Amino acid sequence: MKVSSLSSRKNADPVGIQELVHTKVSEPMPKIDCTKEIAEDIDYHMVSTVINSWDRKILNIPDWSRVVGDRFLRHIFRVDPKTIPIFGFPSETKWDDPSLSHDKNFIQKANKLIRAIDMAVVFLGPDLEPLKDELYRLGWQHTAMKALPSHWPIVGEALLSSLNDCMQGGFSDDERRGWVKIYNFMGFHMIRGLTAHYIEKGEAWRVDNSVKPPTKKVDKPVLAESIPIIAKEKEGNCPHRALICKQLRRSTPYQHMLQCNKRISAADVSFSVVSDVIASWQRIASTPNWEKTVGDLFLRYIFKIEPAAIELFGFPLDTDYTDPDLTANTKFLNKGVVLIKAIDAAVHLLGPDLYPLEEVLYDLGKRHVFMKAQPEFWPVVGEALFLVFEERLGDYFDEQIKDAWTIMYNFLGYHMIQGLVYQYNEIEKRR
Q1: Which residues, 6+ apart, have CB-to-CB distance to 163 below 8 Å?
Q2: In the CATH hierarchy, which fold is given to the domain comprising 3-206?
Q3: Torsion angle of alpha carbons 168, 172, 174, 180, nearest 10°?
Q4: Which residues does the UniProt record annotate as the domain Globin (predicted)?
Q5: Quick one: DSSP state of residue 81?
Q6: For residue 97, what pLDDT band results from cuts at 50, 70 and 90?
Q7: How far apart are CA 198 and CA 200, in angstroms?
Q8: Among 52, 168, 304, 355, whose CB has the most other CB atoms within 10 angstroms?
Q9: Is there a contact between 134 and 268 (Cβ–Cβ < 8 Å)?
Q10: Which is nearest to 136 in space by CA: 180, 187, 205?
Q11: Which residues, 6+ apart, have CB-to-CB distance to 355 below 8 Å?
Q12: How many angstroms separate the CA atoms of 192 and 189, rounded?
């Protein structure tokens, strides 16, 4: 199937389902087998072949995530109709029903599926070792979806079929071989995590009836200790006293979620969390003039939630956060842009290995002393950010995306606050 034909369809059949129905799958795909570890069989040529085929043949398709995601989810339904109700659709739903392409729920789920593949490709490189732990953790989390090892061959076959449909000229032999090997590698380590979690939960029967639950539970990622307390202020007038006024602070639905006061290490942030955060942020950053418009909205929400922050940003306390004239205020606009660029920079630092980021965040937090920042301010900024997401992302900001950003924001905030607290205590020691 040619890419050119994918981009010139009539609105009635935006992703070419009628053509897919008639052509079906052009030839059998290689067998998917996620039961064996094959990392040693994957060489640099295979990895680069997969990356290049994705970048050149998939990402160049107009509206690629909708087109390929649609095919992907349809093929899952085709390969095993039992998956249809798992994705929240009536069991009688037909995989080749053209109306699915206009179903909001279907479009959203298909988009998430294919963007998860996109993130997996992004994380590929010459060294696959760091990816093993992330895949294990991602598989661990799939117990929440009642996933089974038997689902991986279904998804793998559907993925290969959808890529073969959408790639101009279909798969070459090298591409087919590379994708099968990479998928089997990823599936193997995800299934390891899935199996371990089911055993830990006493549900080994889901993966192997012969396996008995262990007597000792496997440790799960947990939130550790709270942040240290800043050195006590002297006579209540210490220059780094809290700037948050509890009488003025407005509550939001996210207040209890974004405290940033419990330790979250890089090990607690899964591959899927990083993937969801990056994908949702790309939506935010994809609109024209986004830094100014989103920065404006972001700063207004901060002022709305915490009026005391208005003075912190250098504006009179009686400034009305709803004032339309603020948009024309260069100072206001610049501060909003700086804020949103800081979030953008943090997102761009995300990757398969977050351990180096902990130190970067710690040092960044230390520098916030010069802005007289306080730990109490991080939840305010987080809540404002979530309100921005509500407004800009709409239905895409669902529970899964909220959960991902909750984990990520608390991770970022905790390590920055650690640096901030350390620096304030060092200042206190020198008094």
Answers
A1: 53, 58, 68, 171, 179
A2: Globin-like (1.10.490)
A3: 80
A4: 263-421
A5: T
A6: very high
A7: 5
A8: 304
A9: no
A10: 187
A11: 266
A12: 5
Whether residue 343 contacts residue 224, with contact meaning beta carbons closer than 8 Å, is answered with no
Separation CA 317–CA 426 (nearest Å): 31
- Which residues lie across from 262 on neighbouring strands? 226
What mean pLDDT value characterizes the chain? 80
Confidence band of 211 (pLDDT split at 50, 70, 90): low
Instruction: Give the DSSP letter of residue 226.
Output: B
Inter-residue long-range contacts of 146-152, CB under 8 Å, 24+ positions, other chains counted: 146/86, 146/206, 147/194, 148/194, 148/206, 148/207, 149/34, 149/191, 149/194, 149/195, 149/207, 151/83, 152/32, 152/34, 152/187, 152/190, 152/191
Angle formed by the axes of helices 399-429 and 377-393, to 10°?
Answer: 160
- Nearest-5° Cα angle at 368, 364 to 374: 125
Q: Could you tell me which of 348, 361, 343 has the C-alpha nearest to residue 294? A: 343
- Separation of alpha carbons 259 and 417, rounded Å: 11
pTM of whole model > 0.70? Answer: no
The mean-pLDDT minimum among 185-189, 197-201, 300-304 falls in 197-201
Among the listed residues 218, 219, 225, 220, the one whose alpha carbon sits nearest the alpha carbon of residue 264: 225
How far, in Å, CA of 215 to CA of 63, rounded? 50
Q: Which amino acid makes up residue 279?
A: A
- Residue spans per domain, the chain: 3-206, 266-429
Residues paired with residue 245 on neighbouring β-strands, in sequence order: none
Question: Token pair for residue 249?
Answer: 């602070």
Q: Say which amino acid occupies 131.
A: L
Confirm whether 3-206 and 266-429 share one CATH topology.
yes
User: SS3 breakdown of the chain: % helix, strand, coil, rounded to 5?
Assistant: 60, 0, 40
Residue spans of alpha helices (H) in 203-289: 271-284
CA-only gyration radius of the chain, Å: 24
* CATH, range 266-429: 1.10.490.10
Please give the Cα distance from 359 to 65 (Å, whole number).
Answer: 34
Reference 6, options 59, 53, 64; nearest CA is 64
The answer to whether residue 293 scores a pLDDT higher than 80 is yes
Tokens of 224: 């550790």
* C-alpha–C-alpha distance, residues 234 and 71, integer Å: 65
